[in-house]
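Hi L.,

As promised, Copper resistance protein D domain-containing protein:
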Amino acid sequence: MTAFALLYSFHVLAAVIWVGGMFFAWMVLRPAAVSELAAPERLKLWAEVFRRFFKWIWVAVLVLPISGIGMWHMRFEGLDAAPRYVHVMAGLFLVMLALFLRIQWLLLPELKRAIAAQNWPEGGTALGKIRGLVGTNLLLGLLVVALASARPLF
């Protein structure tokens, strides 16, 4: 396996974990939790899901730029020579990272405080904000995947 192939494999796996996890959470877990669990149990479930999933997102957040910049240099001999779609993907990664950090550092603590205080309406509000940002990140992630898979067309 070449160094490029190894970097590419890690890059794709990190993207699949992040975007696939958001897709599963948004399209499968959320509707199931809403239909089967009362607010207190649903909020506790989401706090635990985020705790576990965000560990993997941190891995992706580290792997994606390291592998991406490595491939950037190997394939295009530097940042300036890379085609526009590569720059767009890098920019979208930064936006996704900013949204993730907002969830991790601002909204998740808000959700945990509400759960600890058994303030279910406040917890629901916090979870709603998180859900909105996850939805935005999911759309951005799907856009990046579509862009990456269509790259031979550019």
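Residues 3-150 form one domain.

Thanks again for sending the construct details.

K.
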